[in-house]
Amino acid sequence: MKKRFPAVVALNLLITWTTVLGAPISAARLATPGADQLRRQTASDPSLEEEFSFSLKDFKIDHQGEINTLNITVKYRYKVGIAVSDYPDFRLIAKDVETFLSTYPNKKDYWEILNKQLTSLILRKYPSIERVSSELQVSPSANVPYLRSSTVMRQRNSNRERSTTTAK
Fold it and tell me: Does residue 11 share a domain with residue 73?
């Protein structure tokens, strides 16, 4: 016998909500409970900072005369008071990172230069992001037997750009 109890309870709650309480329910409201409250709370709380990060592991790139393996971590902070509808889907940003790296035209650039260009792209393309940092870790290779990394932090509306690097 199949268990259908949770589905029956959920359906019963939905029917109770719509018939007894008389409140209309939309798919959007079910998908984002409390979105209006969150929007009001975020807009009224300038001390709130939200960050998100993701990593790409073992990304292969033909750069500096050989195939290199990168581990990339991208971390970003949203603008204060961001609307729920303005949150970017990180998968789109990850795809942009992959495309950028795969099509990067200057194959001899230092990793730091490539990384600066990457952070610039992210801020240009995603206006709801206030600050971004990108760390590229380059695995040892036949030509360069050292683990190296480049970290770039870039902030919108600022001429300040800080790079911490150990890669060439």
Answer: no
For residue 30, the enclosing domain spans 5-43
pLDDT beyond 90 at 64: yes
pLDDT at 46: 76
Q: Is 84 in the same domain as 136?
A: yes
Whether pTM > 0.90 for this model: the answer is no
Contact 82, 138 (CB under 8 A): no
CB atoms inside a 10 Å sphere around CB 45: 11
pLDDT at 139 over 70: yes
Which pLDDT does position 124 carry in this prediction?
Answer: 97
CA distance 73 to 95: 13
For 127-168, the DSSP string reads: TTEEEEEEEEEE---SS--S-EEEEEEEETT-S-EEEEE---
Angle among Cα 162, 163, 168 to the nearest 5 degrees reads 160
